[in-house]
Amino acid sequence: MRYVRRFSRTERVLHWVNAIGFFLLLATGLILYLPSLAADVGDRPTIKDIHFWGGIGWVAALVLVALLGDRRGLLRTAREIDGFSKQDLNWLRRRRPSEQGRFNAGQKLNASLTAAYLVLFFVSGMLLWAGERDTRFRFASTVILHDGLLYASLALLVGHLYLAVIHPATRHALRGMVTGTVREDWAHAHHPRWDVSD
Amino acid sequence: MEERKYGRGVFLATVAAGVSSLAWGRSAWSHVSSALGGAEAFVPLVPGGGWRIYTVADHMPVFDPETWQLRVGGLVQEPLTLDYGALRALPRTNQVRTFHCVTGWTVQDVHWSGVHLTDLFDRVKPLPEAGAVQFVSAEVPYVDYLSLRQASLADVMLAYEMNGKPLPQEHGAPIRLVIPEMYGYKNVKWVSEIRLVRQPEDGYWEQLGYDRDAWVGRSNGYSS
User: Fold this and answer.
1) Structural contact between residues B212 and B200, judged by C-beta atoms closer than 8 angstroms
2) Could B54 and A148 be called an inter-chain contact, meaning their C-beta atoms sit closer than 8 Å?
């Protein structure tokens, strides 16, 4: 069996730092958000501290990985995610069989939305924190944005986890994010236009 | 082959929509919830009926009906200590009001039952120099104040029931202050002591920069 490299070490570290940060913030956030959990766990001040510093640490860690890792490779990947070809649009409309490169159009959308949600989580979270200290940063809609992002990102995550862990045809992709490589025949079938010699 | 930069387009559009929602999110949300109307009783859009539970201490106070007491004292002629049965024996009053949190969320149509503060004042007889009321929470160090005039508003109550059931622990069992025209942080939970004092001071959140007179829509940087 031959394997081809799909994700660099920098990309994998970035992905898993993002995943760990998300789940830490999700767990502490739900304790702050759900009345029944809040009553069971208690100690809101400590949970709040973990949530706040966890958020700062999450973003700081992502920035550090990007700066210290393979920046050129990340930029090349970002360009791949940015660019949508005619085949990508056809893939989204399901009118043609897949003619996809290293990323299909769904994966590109997932990456762009994940990045946007992260920025918005960070901005609204910092506004919640600052607004507790200064009325100039207090907006009646901040909490609605932060909560809305929770639902939007959970919806995206459920789809992502289904395709990466459960769906038989696609779950081999998880290997790529863990070890860096995927089977060459799988790459051919799912990403026929991906030039694996890159 | 022509490529379009939809990736950054999706990213920038999502960020722009999110940031701009700081201006329109709340009114859009209230349209959605009122459009759903009764449906929300069965499938709440926000878990916990829209409430978020804010606490400041390690643990929520635990209510024991056998040992619980409410002390009413300070600048009064006849200090009073009530147990839970005596509190429930006081004249009962009901109201249905919207609860407003200063952070922007609201809960509509909350049914409160409890006692008017003025009924308590009639029993303890405040001294002439009493100008404010201090509400001490069993959740140390939470405390807050109202002027005597604010505390005597007709819709200010000590609520022991919420939506037809005894006040749940996370809402301040067995009693919380309800002053519907002010933001939630003035509605002290787990009230354990009420003291008449000369003048209002800064309560827990006011020491952290929130307004002492927390009128809904007219304080804390909001105007409407």
Assistant:
1) yes
2) no
